[in-house]
Amino acid sequence: MTTTALRVMDGNKAAAVGVMLCRPDLVASYPISPQTPLLEALYRARAEGRLEADTVEVEGENSALSAAIGAAAAGGRAFTATSSMGLMFMYDAYLFASGQRVPVVMTVATREQSAPHTVSSGQQDIMMVKDGGWVQLVTESCQEILDSILVAYRLAEDPRVQLPVNVSYDGYYLSHLSEPVQVPEQGAVDRFLAPVGAGKRPILSAEAPLTFGAFVVGDLYAEYRYKHCQAMQAALDIAEGLDGEFLAAFGREYGGSVETYRAEDAEILMVAMGSHAGTLKVAVDRLRDEGVAVGLARVRMFRPFPRARLASLLRGRRAVGVVDRSVSFGWGAGHLFVDVRAAADLDRRVPMVNFIGGIAGTDLRREMLEAAVRTTLARGRGVEGPEVVWLNLE
Question: What's the pTM?
Answer without folding.
Answer: 0.91
